[in-house]
From TrEMBL:
It comes from Hemiselmis andersenii (Cryptophyte alga). One of its GO terms (cellular component) is cytosol. InterPro entries: ATPase_NBD, HSP70_peptide-bd_sf, Hsp_70_fam. One of its GO terms (molecular function) is ATP binding. The keyword Nuclease does not apply. Residues 531-550 have a biased composition (Low complexity). Residues 551-563 have a biased composition (Basic and acidic residues). This is Uncharacterized protein. Residues 595-604 have a biased composition (Acidic residues). The keyword Cytoplasm does not apply. It holds the Pfam family HSP70.
């Protein structure tokens, strides 16, 4: 079995890291690159994945899917999906149950090349197969176990879709981990021994991640044994791609004026110009004063060359609205945690888009702290996932370190009307509030006389994108009837938000309250030693149980838990008579033992002729008449002797009590 691995599932690139015994290593792909393009290209019977798809994108752009992560688990009715459908070079359409289908030209075996519909889960599964093969090539053995990162703003449907894609690809996903939590784990675990103890105030760190398509931010509290994500915020429509779009629109407007052509009518031309825009953006990030950089693309459209330039001041001015939006997630996490800026000790930035000084300067001016970049911006998430995979794998021994994440959306329950109400720890609708701890579970109590339905949904639609469905799932609780007394039954329903951030109804149980049956009375203790009287052995009965002589004084029963009082002996001859009586008893017992050679424990003696003959033969032919005489004599001795547990020697037992 190979080593577990972590996957940073990005929008533009994917990064794979492996947990080995020597540490965490980011591995390269077949093109010796540590970043694998998030692309899947189909052509004829061939299927290009990652680097192979990117190398042919210019000639196969209408059949190459990029950034499938943006579409995974979403619905056709969402406004964002409708806008993407207008700009994508490949066809996007509505699928079954309101989902999304991607139409590509593909030639199946034994069939001609024609339009074939794929779900985003199928496209992502193709990419995961390639990434799994990359991990196995370095492990030299199968490596099915991994932890996959997802944005913290992914909803329940999107998370389930990623798990479905992993299952299709044969990847055993140990956990879906939020990008923010993976970054915090990679930063905090190596430093955990320097953090405060659990009893002291934790160390607060702000993590800011601006990737290609979105921005995420979280505040984390660190101690020696755990990390706790206090709050997370995001902007799903703010990333490096949106900065690129500003420059692309600037050049497209110039091209429209000069060449009288619409750049966006030709997907190949757009892709070629986007490549140049990304290079210019990186170059401008290295300048602090105004400068002008050229942009040249040969035969951009209709055999016409593109030549233009952009200044740094122009770039700063056109991106100012985006820079202002960069601070909104930071404001949200501080508002949610109610922490002050001076309570945050460090600010860590990751993500490819944070290389721009515009973003870093805005954070520094707002927080009053210099943002640090102690981790590789493009590899931090994958290393955090690999660390978590090692913690979950039985083949690795990792220092104990707890990971407590939080939800970004609040979840509420609805149920069919009926008799009784629901109790949810004092709340009626909302079960898991925003920033609720993950994983967590809650127990709900319903009073019902018949089955009912439970519906889970996001309680704050404004937290979702426009058009995104709010319903999470629907569950039916059946087999419920009235209680034994005819009233409503008590039903306990357990709901859970698991470590993947997925909501589920675990169990539903009917609880019946049954009064316990009274325990049987224990035998009364009558003797000093606590021995109970045996029903079939009157000779073993305690002395106190024997009938008292007439005229003897009766003692009151002792209080519960108290000690029994000793009986007062009568003065005078009564005490002397008791001593003489015991002395006679011992003498009679001695005589009985001398006349019998059998065991002291007689039990019930069988006096039938067959039994006597058998015993006679066993004793070597003892005369039966003599034996009978001995038995009569022993019985008379036993009847004459008073019952005393301390002197119940070898005499025969008396008759059983009535």
């Amino acid at each position: 079995m190979g080593f577990p691995w972590g996957l940073d599932l990005g929008s533009q690139n994917c990064v794979v890291a492996i947990a080995r015994k020597g540490g965490i290593d980011v591995i390269d792909n077949e093109a010796s690159s540590r970043k694998t393009p998030c692309m899947v290209g189909l052509g004829g019977r061939e299927r290009g994945l990652g680097e192979a798809a990117k190398s042919k994108i210019t000639s196969n752009i209408k059949n190459t899917v990029a950034d499938v992560k943006t579409l995974i688990g979403r619905k056709w009715s969402e406004t964002g999906v409708q806008q993407l459908a207008k700009t994508l070079p490949w066809e996007l359409k509505e699928g079954p149950n309101g989902g999304i289908l991607i139409s590509l030209m593909y030639e199946k075996e034994g069939d001609e090349c024609k339009k074939t519909d794929f779900t985003p889960e199928q496209i992502l599964a193709m990419l995961l197969v390639n990434l799994k093969q990359t991990a196995e090539n370095h492990n030299k053995s199968p490596s099915p176990d991994c932890v996959i990162s997802v944005p913290c703003f992914f909803n329940d449907s999107q998370r389930r879709a990623v798990l479905s894609a992993a299952e299709i690809a044969g990847v055993k996903c140990l956990r879906l981990m939020n990008d923010t939590a993976a970054t915090a784990l990679n930063w905090g675990l190596p430093k955990s021994m320097d953090f405060p103890d659990d009893t002291a105030a934790p160390k607060h760190v702000l993590f800011y991640d601006m990737g290609y398509t979105s921005t995420q931010c979280c505040l984390v509290a660190f101690t020696k044994t755990k990390m706790t994500v206090l709050a997370s915020a995001f902007d799903r429509e703010l990333g490096g791609r949106h900065f690129d779009r500003c420059m692309l629109d600037f050049f497209a407007e110039y091209w429209k004026t000069k060449a009288k052509l619409n750049l966006f009518d030709n997907p190949k031309s757009v892709f070629r110009l986007e490549t140049q825009v990304d290079k210019i953006k990186q170059q401008l990030s290295g300048y602090s004063s105004n400068t002008k950089l050229p942009c040249n693309v040969e035969c951009l459209q209709d055999d016409q060359d593109f030549h233009h330039s952009i200044e740094l001041d122009q770039w700063v001015e056109m991106t100012k609205p985006l820079v202002d939006r960069c601070l909104e997630p930071v404001k949200q996490v501080f508002a949610a945690t109610k922490l002050m800026f001076d309570q945050v000790e460090e600010v860590e930035v990751v993500g490819s888009a944070t290389r721009s000084p515009l973003v870093v300067n805005a954070l520094r001016d707002f927080l009053g702290k210099e943002p640090k970049r102690t981790m590789n911006s493009e590899e931090a998430v994958s290393k955090g996932c690999a660390l978590n995979a090692a913690m979950l794998s039985p083949n690795f021994k990792v220092r104990e370190f707890g990971i407590i994440d939080c939800t970004c959306y609040s979840v509420a329950l609805g149920w069919t009307p009926g008799a009784g109400e629901m109790e949810v720890e004092g709340k009626r609708d909302t079960v898991f509030g925003q920033y609720n701890v993950v994983p967590s579970a809650k127990l709900l109590t319903f009073m019902r006389t018949q089955g009912f339905d439970i519906t889970a949904a996001y309680s704050e639609p404004q937290e979702l994108t426009e058009g995104m469905p709010t319903e999470i799932g629907h569950w039916a609780v059946t087999g419920v009837g009235p209680a034994a007394d005819g009233g409503p039954s008590k039903i306990k329903v357990k709901v859970r938000m698991d470590a993947n951030g997925i909501f589920s109804v675990d169990t539903a149980q009917v609880v019946e309250e049954v009064e316990p049956e009274p325990a049987p009375e224990a035998p009364k203790e009558e003797d000093k030693g606590g021995d109970a009287a045996m029903p079939d052995a009157a000779a073993d009965a305690p002395a106190e149980a024997a009938p008292e002589p007439a005229g003897a004084e009766k003692e009151a029963a002792p209080a519960e838990g108290g000690e029994k009082k000793k009986k007062k002996k009568k003065e005078g001859s009564d005490g002397e008579d008791d001593g003489e009586e015991k002395k006679k008893k011992k003498e009679k017992k001695k005589k009985a033992e001398e006349s019998d050679s059998w065991d002291d424990d007689w039990g019930d003696v069988d006096t039938s002729e067959a039994a006597v003959a058998a015993r006679s033969a066993a004793l070597g032919g003892v005369d039966q008449d003599a034996l009978a005489a001995k038995m009569d004599k022993a019985a008379k001795v036993a009847d004459a002797a008073p019952a005393d547990d301390s002197d119940s020697g070898g005499g025969a037992p008396g008759p059983p009590p009535p």
